[in-house]
Amino acid sequence: MTGSSAWHLGGRGRLAVTWCHGIAADPVRLHAWVQTEDGTRVGEPDSTLAYAPLLVVGVRHQHRN
Predict the structure, then answer these.
(1) d(Cα 59, Cα 56) in Å, to the nearest integer?
(2) Residue among 60, 42, 49 at smallest CA distance from 2
(3) Cα–Cα separations (whole angstroms), residue 10 to 7, 25, 52, 58
(4) What's the per-residue H, E or C state across the chain?
(5) Which region holds residue 29: left if phi is over 0, alpha if psi is between -120 and 50, else beta?
(6) Is the peptide bond before 27 cis (omega within 30 degrees of 0)?
(7) Residues ≥6 apart with Cβ < 8 Å to 32
């Protein structure tokens, strides 16, 4: 996904997205991706499910009383 495509999803398209930076082991690899509020990774192959998020930007937390 290009930066302009992600901006369309998150900015102009009004779809809430989360920017994630993650890591996979053996061998160590780094990757960044965009996902929707429900955790669906946008435009990513299933192989990226091996990456665990290290930094997540844009998550909206809802506190329950």
Answers:
(1) 7
(2) 42
(3) 5, 29, 22, 10
(4) CCHHHHHHHHHHCCCCEEEEEEEECCCCEEEEEEEECCCCECCCCHHHHHCEEEEEECCCCCCCC
(5) beta
(6) yes
(7) 19, 20, 21, 22
Tell me how crowded residue 49 is: count the other CB atoms within 10 A of its CB. Answer: 10
Contact assessment for residue 32 and residue 19, using Cβ atoms and an 8 Å cutoff: yes
For residue range 2-21, what is the model confidence (pLDDT) as tens digits? 444 444 454 555 667 899 99
pLDDT tens readout for residues 18-34: 999 999 998 999 999 99
Cβ-Cβ contacts under 8 Å for 19 (sequence gap 6 or more): 6, 32, 33, 34, 56, 57, 58
